[in-house]
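Before a colleague's protein record goes any further, I have to sign it off. What it holds is a sequence and that sequence's fold in token form. Would you go through it and say whether the fold makes sense for this chain? The record follows directly below this note.
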Amino acid sequence: MSMPGFAVFLLLVTSAAETGTVVPEALLGHWVVADSQASPLPESCRRLSLDFSADGTVAGSSGPELFAYKGKSVYRTAGSGYEIHQYDLKFNDKPNCQGKSSDYVSSHFIPDIYVEVNGDRLRFYFWTSSDKLYLDYLRQRD
């Protein structure tokens, strides 16, 4: 992370700690992949999930018995969505849904993401909101 990027990150963490809440209410909950604009998802990758908890914990999984991670996160409103910085990440040792090793996935993991939420639909962009590559997730309610 560059020095200016690190300074922004520290500001976000400090700001979040002062407000007592780091996760926008719109993001809270368990989300399961619904569709992909990146390319058709192979059947093995149709169980991707994301979880956002009120305490700032973020978790993701490629599916049962596959690659998963858990960590902390800070959020910043950006345009019609949120920039999310994930940090202090812990990865399991299982391959992802494409068969790539946990070491490979964790070494190529992108901790900074952009999402937009519209009700129970979350759009996860791979780079920026202007990018045409994204995954749509649906919120799973109890």
